[in-house]
Amino acid sequence: MYYAAKIDGASDWKYLWKIMVPMCRPTVVTITILKVIECWNSYIWPSLVTDDPKYFLVSNGIQQIRESGFGRANIPAMMAAVVVISIPLIVLFLVYRNQIMSGVVKGGTKG
Predict the structure, then answer these.
(1) Is 80 exceeded by the pLDDT of residue 75?
(2) Residue 68 DSSP label
(3) CA–CA dist 75, 106 (Å, integer)
(4) Contact 33, 92 (CB under 8 A)
């Protein structure tokens, strides 16, 4: 593709922005979403940095809900908290699902 673009008179910058970036967009979106999920699910960092409960993440709160069940897990409260913290990730996926699916299709085909 590079040589075809060069024959057509494209500069290196035009090749980068008009050919490579659109081809890589689904991959970049997918990697970005995975990094956001990784950051969202970070559990250990707040425990290491602070002892103040008001700075803990939601996952720390779910653990506290689990432990406050008087010998048994408070399943309804835990499930409600999990649904609440999952909503932003689901919305993120729904917004970018077309780019994710096009990246899977492009990566799964040969040629």
Answers:
(1) no
(2) T
(3) 41
(4) yes
